[in-house]
Task: structure prediction
Amino acid sequence: MAMDDEIKKQLVEQLGAELGVKKENKDARFDSSTGTLYANDLKNYAVSLIDSDQFTKGKVYECGDIVNGRLRVINDVNRPSNIHLDDYDFEFHLHVANMPK
Result:
């Protein structure tokens, strides 16, 4: 038996209220359909462990969101690259407030 979508929404909203989660503010947004809190100030970073024609060893690259186990990075030649989280050529720092450059 599938739970009614309206009941799901109400339960998620009630849980958020009990936890003191604000649905929207400048620092975060709450997706009531999935029950996920997204913080606007947290970012993903990749540090290159290799030198190549596209990446510089030791350079910190700001990444987009994780999608299907991959992060989108703008490489040294100004092109987007999708890097898998299992790639040993990079060190990943996920959901951090500030990454030193």
Notes: The chain has one helix and seven strands. Residues 21-25 have pLDDT under 50 and may be disordered.
